[in-house]
Amino acid sequence: MPHLEGVRQHRLRRNLAIIVPPLVLLTIVTGYLALPVSKVSTVRVRGNTNVSASTVQRASGLTNSSLIPTVWLNGQHVGQRVVKHVARVASAKAQVTGARDVTITVTEHETVGYVQRGDSYHALLDDGTIIRTGTSAPKSGDLIFKGFGNGLQRVVRVVAKFPTSIRHDISEVQSARGGGNPYQITITMSDGNTIVADSRTVGKKN
Question: In sequence order, what DSSP letters do the residues of 141-161 get, joined into one string?
């Protein structure tokens, strides 16, 4: 019988050794999550120029009730939410940069030019996106796209691939549709010279 009792005690110790550590860990984690120190205190935004930090923060979904461990585990998803909801943001990454601080680093799509819709001008981004919010007038020297219908976004993506130095010398790109060619465009340079080209091939190297 003493041997049987020893076996029982051994099993009990073994079971406790298996059960207690997870219970202790669970208690610690639960206690941590209940404390203010586990929640986000400050959200900083870096890399933004045309998009406000508040816009990025709202799109991220992070608030003072968001848990720091959630950002650790799902920082990529936080960035994806920003990209999904903010058209000007090309990429975003959320990282815990302090005990309770989170930094969202963004890269923005470049503004290629503007298109007039009614009485306002709308920015055109390098991925072809047309920004819904317009302005009364583009900045002096900005590239203007004219006369395009459904093919506008494709042409914008083509022009976006031009070297920056060349693109900055262009004042206007207009749909010409000359000679029965629906892809014909006229590129007007800042010095007044014009170039007639085909939008399907103008960005390709020979």
Answer: T--EEES-STTHHHHHHHHHT
Query: Between these two residues, 25 and 123, which has the higher pLDDT value?
Result: 123
- pLDDT (mean) for 39-64: 93
Of 124, 117, 190, 119, which Cα lies nearest the Cα of 157? 124
Element containing residue 173 per DSSP (H, E): strand 170-175
**Chain position carrying tokens 């400050």:** 42
Strands (E), 5-157: 42-46, 89-96, 101-108, 111-117, 120-125, 144-146
What's the sign of the alpha-carbon dihedral 115, 117, 122, 126? negative
* % of the chain beyond a pLDDT of 90: 46
Q: What is the pTM of this model?
A: 0.75
Report strand pairing: 101-108 vs 111-117: unpaired
User: Domain of 11?
Assistant: 1-34
Last residue of a domain, one of 108, 131, 165: 108
For residue 105, the surrounding DSSP H or E stretch is: strand 101-108
Q: Same structural domain for residues 161 and 193? A: yes
Give the H/E segment covering residue 174. Answer: strand 170-175
Percent of the chain past pLDDT 70, that is, above it, reads 79
